[in-house]
Design brief:
The strands form 6 sheets. The protein has a 7-stranded parallel sheet with strand order 19-20-18-17-21-22-23, sandwiched between helices. A 4-stranded antiparallel sheet has the order 1-2-3-6, with no helix packed on it. A 4-stranded parallel sheet has the order 13-10-14-15, with helices on both faces. It has 483 residues and is an alpha/beta fold. It is 28% helix and 19% strand. The protein starts with 6 loop residues before the first strand and ends in a 15-residue tail after the last helix. Helix 5 crosses helix 12. It has 13 helices and 23 strands. A hairpin with a 5-residue loop joins strand 2 and strand 3.
């Protein structure tokens, strides 16, 4: 006898269920041509032909129902829950910075103002080292290289400056060396004022054209930063000082039923205790945006969310692209059919509590003029994995939780906790995956408790896979003329 199929129906209103052996959808009743296919209790597209009960539902018999422009209606402010989910007052051992945010690491970043000096940054990172004052382990600076900073104009240049400044101001940066060439558009004079929120003794500037030997000069500046960082220690920090980013990549048919709702329950618990969580990937909100809009804490936040969605749709249209050109080939191979299917699963990472605000690309959590209340925030930016994790780090996230069904070795300037949607991936790619969310399907309470403690352990210094592998990539969202 063959193995009995195990189907999982997410919502009582769904007309499809997920085959837990494959991650693909199956009709639980007959679906007529043109009828909505319902998953997560919401439409994820329409049937392109009659579908029989028990038949697989995928690209061969359904399609998206999305369009470029839609109208949205405000239904009132979402009520803010006053009672915390966890009664206990939780803290973690972190690096409390002068701007009031807490770092999970004490890194030394080398940030080029322009791609022309990438090799200088990389050489300094390779040739310099310093002991971790708490563990005694040898650490190296992290060179955050990129190809931009020159031949850029206007808003395109400003975006590059904002992201680089945000990385320099991230709470995980115990010291920062800014390396410039001397003739680039991103001049030191225009860039320096964007770093006003940092401690002056934690940042140094190197202009290579003004030095006889930029490597010798750079090493001298790094030595001074290391002396300052040697005094840093982890101290008890409230969770209200911690900002965590939410991201997914390489999603599959299990992501929306294991890893993403699993992360959503963590987000609810974490923000109830005063933490800040940030959700990005605007194109992967298309089709689920009304659920986020209905959670807006005020009319102002609702309007900001509508503007966020419509502005990004206009960006697609202005480049001659349709808003529903998603999911990726890997997503489709994993059982995700339409963008609505992907988005309704993706946005579950955000939990169920109010949306407190919207951040533009390059905006930051924290800072002397940007203090924000705890809760969930939406961050403008694309779904591209490298751009998104960089965007989250530049916004002030000192830890990123990243769900995946197919796996990725991607890192970022801050630790990235990879959460697998299925046990097979967690077993096969132990060098990529930090936590397996699949047990949460059968025993959510135990899995949730284990994950909460694991996240605090990562925040307190447990190395993530990307850190062990030395993966610290950045990518900047470019949208302008190159001279």
């Amino acid at each position: 006898m063959g193995k009995m199929k195990r189907l999982y129906q997410i919502h009582p209103a769904d007309n499809v269920a997920v085959d837990l052996e494959t991650g693909f959808k199956e009709a639980v009743r007959d679906i007529s041509s043109g009828e909505s296919v319902i998953k997560y209790g919401n439409p994820i597209g329409r049937a392109t032909r009659d579908i029989r009960a028990g038949e697989r539902v995928h690209t061969e018999n359904m399609a998206t129902s999305l369009s470029e422009h839609e109208k949205y209606e405000f239904h009132g402010a979402f009520p803010k829950k006053e009672e915390p989910i966890h009664a206990e007052n939780r803290c973690f051992m972190g690096y409390l910075r002068s701007i009031g945010r807490a770092g999970t690491r004490n890194e030394l970043f080398i940030i080029p103002t322009v791609g022309c000096v990438n090799s200088v940054a990389e050489r300094l990172a390779a040739e310099c080292s310093f002991p971790d004052p708490q563990t005694g382990q040898t650490m190296h600076p992290i060179a955050l290289t990129h190809p931009y900073g020159c031949s850029q104009l206007g808003g395109d240049l400003l975006r590059t400056q904002q992201i680089l400044a945000g990385l320099a101001l991230n709470p995980n940066a115990g010291g920062v060396l800014i390396v410039g060439l001397g003739c680039e558009n991103n001049t030191m004079e225009s860039f320096r004022p964007m770093l006003r929120d940092t401690d002056p003794d934690r940042i140094r500037f190197l202009l290579c054209q003004e030095e006889a030997d930029e490597i010798v000069a750079g090493k001298r500046l790094i030595a001074g930063l290391c002396d300052r960082m040697a005094r840093d220690r982890r101290v008890p920090c409230p969770l209200s000082a911690l900002t965590i980013g939410l991201k997914c990549g390489g999603s599959d048919g299990y992501s929306g039923i294991t890893a993403n709702p699993f992360l959503g329950r963590f987000t609810d618990a974490f923000t109830a205790l005063g933490g800040i969580a940030v959700l990005t990937e605007v194109p992967e909100m298309f089709g689920a945006e009304r659920l986020l809009m209905d959670r807006a804490i005020s009319r102002e936040v609702f309007d900001q969310t509508v503007d966020l969605i419509n502005r990004y749709k206009d960006y697609f249209v202005s480049h001659g692209q349709t808003v529903y050109e998603n999911p990726s080939p890997g997503n489709i191979a994993g059982g995700i059919t339409t963008l609505e299917d992907k988005s309704l699963g993706c946005t579950q990472k955000s939990g169920s509590r109010p949306v407190m605000g919207v951040l533009g690309y390059g905006d930051r959590i924290g800072g002397t003029d940007q203090a924000r209340p705890s809760g969930l925030y939406l961050l403008e930016g694309p779904g591209n994995d490298m751009v998104a994790v960089t965007n989250l780090a530049a916004a002030g996230c000192s830890l990123i939780l990243f769900t995946t069904g197919r796996g990725t070795p991607l890192g970022s300037p801050v630790p990235v906790v990879k959460v697998s949607s299925n046990a097979d991936l967690a077993e096969r790619k132990r060098n990529w995956i930090d936590f397996d969310a699949s047990p949460a399907l059968d025993n959510p309470k135990a899995a949730d408790a284990d994950f909460f403690e694991a996240v605090l352990a990562f925040a307190e210094g447990r190395k993530t896979a990307n850190e062990r592998n030395g993966s610290h990539e950045i990518a900047i969202f470019k949208d302008g003329v190159t001279l």
